[in-house]
Structure formats: structure tokens, C-alpha cells
TrEMBL record:
Stated name of the protein: Coumarine and phenylpropanoid biosynthesis
Family: Belongs to the zinc-containing alcohol dehydrogenase family.
Essential cofactor(s): Zn(2+)
Pfam families in the record: ADH_N, ADH_zinc_N
Matching SUPFAM superfamilies: GroES-like (SSF50129), NAD(P)-binding Rossmann-fold domains (SSF51735)
CDD domains reported in the protein's UniProt record: CAD1
Root EC class: oxidoreductase
Organism this protein belongs to: Stylosanthes scabra
Keywords: Metal-binding, Oxidoreductase, Zinc
Gene3D superfamilies in alphabetical order: Medium-chain alcohol dehydrogenases, catalytic domain, NAD(P)-binding Rossmann-like Domain
Amino acid sequence: MGSLEAERTTVGWAARDPSGVLSPYTYPLRNTGPDDVFIKVHYCGLCHSDIHQVKNDLGMSNYPMVPGHEVVGEVLEVGSNVTRFKVGEIVGAGLLVGCCKTCTACQSDIENYCSKKIWSYNDVYIDGRPTQGGFAEHMIVEQKFVVKIPEGMEPEQVAPLLCAGVTVYSPLAHFGLKESGLRGGILGLGGVGHMGVKIAKALGHHITVISSSDKKKKEALEDLGADSYLVSSDATSMQEAADSLDYIIDTIPVGHPLEPYLSLLKLDGKLILMGVINTPLQFVSPMVMLGRKSITGSFIGSMKETEEMLQFWKEKELSSMIEIVKMDYINKALERLEKNDVRYRFVVDVKGSKLDQ
């Protein structure tokens, strides 16, 4: 990669400890290596997994930590081996910035399952330096992990797609759930959940939003266009909906019982886990065995799937539901996100923020 001499510096907002409070932080960036793209960050989405990381919920956090992994920005410089991108283009970068390139996953273009993948922040790059994320003025990203933004797409709209969007799109594609006419469930109506409704509806699916209360019923049906709404605490409604769904996308990021949702699946139905949960989940085996049902998971998506999803999003003329904030609001945004007080994704206007204050 680039020379370690005469390095640039940039400013980001970093957490220093498990309090998760972010504040300005100046740190070095490596020079642009042959395979690198030097990006000026314009927008960066805020994801629930950012909370897990800055607060050390998973017990693996290293500080100082600049979070942010839904990055859209402008190319300022490219390395000598870079041919797909040029200065001035608007591009995206997501949760990963490195992989081994030799394992079965990498050779199969599903580098998101590489056991040696490198996270965009809270990790160590191949040059030994800590990786830092998109709540910063600049990032250096290897070209493999940079995606083109289709012409005409608004950059602030694209940011949530680089994690939340592809996280939903990838399992639908992989498990053969893209055909029209399927009946799906979206469990939890947050940042990923709202993407799930939009993408699944665009595929022609009948979609039921499942939630613990009727608080989000109006927005699910009227704003997002879901076909039905199911309150999981309503035993009668849950019983009536038994054996009705081909799949459920489970986006809940905290511990919860699985049996009530397994009962909603048809024969061979799939419960697809997407929430990052640091406590064990439980279920009784007959709930799976007697319907040949599957409990599975999916992790973001490959770079190929990300580009495919962006093109799909553009062709279907979809839009993200976002709240744009400046960096000086980021700590309040984190508090609100933890309370699910956002419709449905915060996007930080990094370019329009004064990061050193």
C-alpha cells in the first residue's frame, strides 16, 4: 500500500470509551496506494451496529474509534492500478475495506464471508494501522470495496443502502426469494426493516410488518405500503396468521423469543436473522422440525450484490426515508436511535459539518 512517510491527517468524530460519546479526533491517513481510492466523505449513514461498537456491547471495541460504514463521497485521488474510478466521481463504501482474496468465499465473490475480512472501523488494516470509519472528512479505501453510484441517485439517499439496503437484498437474492407473489414478514420496523418493506414490495411480495405494538401501524401501511400489520402480543391475530408466510426478515437487534415467529412460517419457510444480538436465542426444535423450517442468517452483502442492489433501487425508483443531521448532532442521534426514535435512518451531512468543533 502507500508509503508511511509524510502522511496526511484527517478529522473525524471518535468514541474514546464505552460511554459511546463522540468528539473531534485528528488522526493520520496512509498515502494513496496503487489499489486505493482517496475519498472526501459527503454523507454517512448511522446504523444500530454503530451503537454496539462505540459502547463495546460485543466486548471487542478499541478506542479511539471513528464509526460510520455507509459512506458516500467524492473521489479525490486514485492509485496507479485503479481503472474503475476517476477523480470527481461520487462513490460508495460500506462495512468492509479488506479481505484475504484467496479463500473460498473470496474466490466466489462473497468476500463478506471471508474469515479474514477487515472492517471499515474498529479493526486493523494490512499495514498495521487501525481502520477508522466514515464520520470523518476523508477515507482511504481499496478499490475492490468501492462501488459506483448510478447516475441520478441522490448521494444522501444512497448512504443507507450501503448497509441496510444490501443487508435485506442479499438474502432475498441468495435464498431464491425474489420471485413475485411470495408472502413475507418484516419483523421490526427500523432502518433495516423499512428497507425490507420497500425492496420486498418492489419485488412484488405481499408484506406483513410484525411489531410488538400497534404504534407503527399507520406508517407501515400508509407510508411504506405494507399489505398488513401484525401485533406480536395479540395472541388471536398471531394464531390466525399461523402458516401464512414464506419468509420472515428478523431485524430485531435485542434478544427475543423465536417460537412466535416460527409459527407464522409455511412449510419450508425461512426465518432470516439480521439483528446483531449478544445474548443466546432459544427455540424448541419441534417448531422447526414439524414444518421443515429454517432459521438462518445473512451478513450484509457482497460488492457484486451491492452494485446489483443499487441498480435495482434506481430502476424501481425507490427512495430511502431518512433524517439528515450535522455532525454536531451525532450524539443526540445515537441516543434517539437507541430509542428507535427515527424514521428510519439518520444520515450525517459530513460535507456540510464543521468536524473540528
